[in-house]
Amino acid sequence: MTELNSTDQNICNDMVTKIAKLARLRLTAQEATDYQENFTELINLFHELDDLDMTLSSTTNRLLTNAQDCRSDSPELTDMSQLSKASPHFNSETKYFDVPQFIEYDNE
Length: 108
Prior knowledge:
Elements: H1 6-22, H2 29-49, H3 83-86, E1 90-91, E2 96-97
Antiparallel strand pairs: 1-2
Helix pairs in contact: 1-2
């Protein structure tokens, strides 16, 4: 299996920050750490795919694209004036959705 290198680790930390920003989420330090660990596990699973012998598979009839060949996500400035009318949870000052907690946590 391909080992996780420091570049992959940096990508995970950057991914957490970028995804949170794109989703307009505020993450606590613990949540960011949890997501970073989840992304790292996901990357490890992709590295396991490197070891698969695809020559025996007849279902791979199309080329796989490198991540570098894909477009990069870039947020666009949008008119958010209508969001406060559409959702009572949109905070027009912070530009985030302040959704009340609805899941109860058991702190045991």
